[in-house]
Amino acid sequence: MTDTVIRVENLSKKFILGHQQQERYTALRDVISNGVKSVGSRLRHPEKRLIDSSKQEFWALKDVSFEIKQGDRIGVIGRNGAGKSTLLKILSQITEPTKGQIRIRGRIATLLEVGTGFHPELTGRENIYLNGAILGMSKEEITKKFDEIVAFAEVEKFLDTPVKRYSSGMYVRLAFSVAAHLEPEILIVDEVLAVGDAEFQKKCLGKMEEVGKDGRTVLFVSHNMAAIQVLCTKAICLKQGSLIGYGDVAQQIESYLNTYRSQVNSSTNTQIELSKNLILEKFDIAPNPVVSNSQLQFVITFFSPKPTCLEDISILIYSSLGMRVGILDLRQSNAKYQLDGKNRYTITVNVNSFYLIEGDYRIGLYIKNEEVQKDFLDLASLTVIDKPITGEIIPYPNMHRGVVDFSFSISSGY
To answer: What is the pLDDT of residues 46-89, one digit of tens each?
Structure first.
């Protein structure tokens, strides 16, 4: 019997994107006229389908093929929009492919986003049994694992509370615990683990490693390359829906980082839609490269077509491997950022001493307003270079220097 548990052949997925047109007043005569035109066009050209110019095709995946063996721990990497989540949804049989085939041998447990697979009106206890039944397990099998699931998730006090009252962290803890402990042959986990705290993330990574060593298969999507390195034995690298690499995890991460460095600029000068009524027009970093321990300036320009309020904004700083190394919390104690809907709004941040050591960093934003609460990653890149060392002192290699370059003074003597 073959040890291949997942085989994907020429997999493609197409979505139809609708573009909202400017609204105008429509009279009854317009509705009748448009209907008559549509019927007339079909009668004149029956062989042609009418194409709605307000809609556009988008291929989230294009001719993707690979095989996964039993016991493989696979990291799925790529930038936002590369097709990672779409691939997992197809493998989880949540979404149908447009073209291609998938063959799966074994039960799949999936954790793609907060709330997937749970009924909000049911209690934590009831959802554990519901999920187990969906996986095809008997009540006796679920009961046997029940105490382990609850202990791992740390939700004993809220076990008989409807999960709609859980925090996002509690939701994820219980959902992951159920998915990992009910012994599926294949465990699929998306970036959703980022919701949990650091200690729980560590537990999850340990559990996924344990699942893999037991001979079961794990697919793990993350922007945290360090976690991918630790957990996974192989990696799939996607770019704009296409498979650009599959194999040794270190090689695929290096390939991804090289692609990332070539694509991400030191500033963003094209419009990025953060929400329906919030546009990021500019995100500048100067100087770039910056000398470690010196001054740095961020300039962020927003535009909104109507008045809106920025309740929370932070600059996010990640290492090249995707580990968050710090944030600049830009909240003001006495006011929120008010955009008037007419003028561009600029926030300038002056950093007196930028203490990170030399290396490449990925810069993003956390935004919260009435429409969105979200991290926007990889908006710009920043290169930090070592401060000059005088005399004959040989600098330590980067890997030995950690993350922070502290500012300090020395006094010595008898």
So the answer is: 554 444 555 678 899 999 999 999 989 999 998 777 899 899 99
Quick one: tokens of 267?
């500033």
CB 223 within 8 A of CB 235: no
Residue 43: CB atoms within 10 A of its CB come to 8
- Residue at token pair 């993330």: 201
Q: Provide DSSP, 354-401.
A: E-B-SEEEEEEEEEESSS-EEEEEEEEEEEEEPPP--TTPPPPPGGGS
CA dist 204 and 220 (Å) reads 11
HSE-CB for 170 with a 13 A CA cutoff? 16
Sketch out the chain's domains with CATH numbers: 58-262 (3.40.50.300), 272-390 (2.70.50.60)
* Burial of 33 from C-beta contacts in 10 A (0-12 / 13-18 / 19+): exposed
Say how far apart CA 128 and CA 178 lie, in whole Å. 6
How does pLDDT run across 100-109, given as a tens digit for each residue? Answer: 999 999 888 8
- Whether 78 and 52 have beta carbons less than 8 Å apart is answered as no
Q: How far apart are CA 379 and CA 331, in angstroms?
A: 20
Neighbours of 384 (CB within 10 A): 22
Give every CB contact of residue 155 below 8 A, 6+ residues apart in sequence: 124, 166, 170, 173, 174
Q: Give residue for tokens 């996924």.
A: 208
Contact 188, 171 (CB under 8 A): no
